[in-house]
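FW: tagging you since you asked about this chain on Friday. Here's the raw sequence from the shared folder, copied in full. Didn't touch anything.
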Amino acid sequence: MDRRFDREEEDLGNVVALEHVNTRVPDQRLATLFYISGLGLTRDPYLMTGVDNMWVNVGKSQFHLPTGDAQVLRGHVGLVVPDIPALLRRLSAVAPVLEGTSFAFREEGDFVEAVSPWGNRIRCHAPSTRFGGMTLGMPYVEFSVPGGTAAPIARFYREILRTPAVVVEDKAGEHARVSVGPGQSLVFRETERPLPAYDGHHIQIYLADFSGPYRRLIERGLITEESDRHQYRFQEIVDLDTGRPLFVIEHEVRSMRHPLYARPLVNRNPAQTNRDYRPGHDSFRG
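HL: got it, structure written out here
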């Protein structure tokens, strides 16, 4: 009985999963080249298999990419990928076909930043102790937010969604870090740079206590869509004392009774090719 642990480190909070990031794309072909051929992710083989939407699996999370005017997340999405050198080879291979778009990629420190044909930034990290046991997945989404908003944003998530949220200061400045599932976070990093107008992109989360946050949001007039019995949406993160909007990002909020909750996702092994085929290695094994 001599060992002591910080038991709060194991607390999950009310948000149990960050399931997807949704941004519209004007061209499904270019999206396939970037997300599937370049990043090495997997098109969902069962749902949204037409030409007007694509769901892209990355571990237990997804990108949703419906066709429409381009949407750009104000920040970046963090991914863990199993093989950084292989990622660089794939991105180099698609670079000539994506010439003339916003596509780019670069190595910086311990990550590779890839930019989609429309300007969405994806930071790809190798598996490490920083991301626990994750070998393929979406550990965080980072948003750029106005200066002075990190602390009230963290409070909003603690008191409205009832999930752990802290304010952290590092060499890049102050930010709020919000727990949205095992090994997953939303990061709200303060910046003094002007931010572009919100264009309608969204994230989707699952809640254990679905009705409590709903009551607190509706009391403040923040519910924007009554989707169905399993889902609602809100957009504004507000100062709880004044009601002043701090940041806008649509949250698609689902209950754990939603039919898609914990749906198993297919993830391929992008190293498998017809020229160097190994039987039994089509699926990503982690």
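FW: Helices lie at 28-38, 84-94, 150-161, 211-219.
HL: agreed, and The longest strand covers residues 245-255.
FW: great, closing this out.
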